[in-house]
């Protein structure tokens, strides 16, 4: 079956530090990949997506590249802010271009301190 | 435009009691989903409805039933609550088939079963 593995948290960084959250996946065919973010007390929001190999998703300074050869979709940001403190979920959909029937990773909590 | 709304926000039940979690969306999306979120396990799909009039089981359907009342509303029922159903429940909506990939999540219902 499909699965997503994320690095364990919490990850604690100082403001303006570089962020990487690792995500690898197992799936057959050509899945679509997503990063969702959950701020305290809220539901999940889509942060970025990539629907085919070598695509780069980007939003709000965050980036992730769909690497089929390493089955990875690592999240990066060059300079984090306190407002980026949240839980980040990597997810996949088994359908090329689709966002339904998502399989989520366990989430990585990010804490950014001044 | 409220997006996805869920009621109630919090609920405490005794073992064996029943309740229905309500979800409504005002985005005219076809597909709706129910997830549960448990610590260290990410989100797991309970049931989904690809379109009005259809429902299907997800990864963890046991102990739950759903009703897609109309295009807007998708409810989740616990007939006889158990402590293992203590969790945070999220509803989501997705427009599938038109090139849109984002699932929109509600704010969640925190359920405790004692």
Largest sheet of chain B: 7 strands, mixed
Largest interface: pair, residues per side: A-B, 23 and 25 residues
Total helical elements of chain B: 0
Oligomeric organization of the protein chains: heterodimer
Kindly describe this structure.
The complex is a heterodimer of chains A (114) and B (114). Chain A is mostly beta strands. Helices cover 0% and strands 49% of the residues of chain A. With 114 residues, chain B is mainly beta. Chain B is built from no helices and 11 strands. In chain B, strands 2, 4, 5, 6, 9, 10 and 11 form a 7-stranded mixed β-sheet that branches. A 4-stranded antiparallel β-sheet of chain B has the order 1-3-8-7, with no helix packed on it. The mean pLDDT of chain B is 91. Classes of the chains: A mainly beta (114), B mainly beta (114).
Describe the secondary-structure layout.
The complex is a heterodimer of chains A (114) and B (114).
Chain A: E1 3-6, E2 11-14, E3 19-21, E4 23-26, E5 32-38, E6 44-50, E7 56-59, E8 62-65, E9 75-77, E10 86-93, E11 103-104, E12 108-113
Parallel strand pairs in A: 2-12
Antiparallel strand pairs in A: 1-4, 3-9, 5-6, 5-10, 7-8, 8-9, 10-11, 10-12
Chain B: E1 4-7, E2 10-13, E3 19-25, E4 31-38, E5 42-49, E6 56-57, E7 64-68, E8 74-78, E9 87-94, E10 103-105, E11 109-113
Parallel strand pairs in B: 2-11
Antiparallel strand pairs in B: 1-3, 3-8, 4-5, 4-9, 5-6, 7-8, 9-10, 9-11
């Amino acid at each position: 079956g499909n699965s997503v593995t994320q690095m364990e948290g919490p990850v604690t960084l100082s403001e303006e530090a570089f962020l990487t959250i690792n995500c690898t996946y197992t799936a057959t065919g050509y899945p679509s990949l997503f990063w969702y973010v959950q701020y305290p007390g809220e539901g999940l929001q889509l942060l970025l997506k990539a629907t085919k190999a070598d695509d780069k998703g980007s939003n709000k300074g965050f980036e992730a590249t769909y690497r089929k050869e390493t089955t990875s979709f690592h999240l990066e940001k060059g300079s984090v802010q306190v407002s980026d403190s949240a839980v980040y979920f990597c997810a996949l959909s088994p359908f090329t271009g689709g966002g339904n029937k998502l399989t989520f990773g366990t989430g990585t909590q990010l804490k950014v301190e001044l | 435009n409220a997006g996805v709304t869920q009621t109630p926000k919090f609920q405490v039940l005794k073992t064996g009691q029943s309740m229905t979690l309500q979800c409504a969306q005002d985005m005219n999306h076809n597909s709706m989903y129910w997830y549960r979120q448990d610590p260290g396990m990410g989100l797991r799909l309970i049931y989904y409805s690809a379109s009005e009039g259809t429902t299907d089981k997800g990864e963890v359907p046991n102990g739950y039933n759903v009703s897609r009342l109309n295009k807007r509303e998708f409810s989740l029922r616990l007939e006889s609550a158990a402590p293992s159903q203590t969790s945070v429940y999220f509803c989501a909506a997705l427009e599938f088939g038109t090139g849109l990939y984002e699932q929109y999540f509600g704010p969640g219902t925190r359920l405790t079963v004692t």
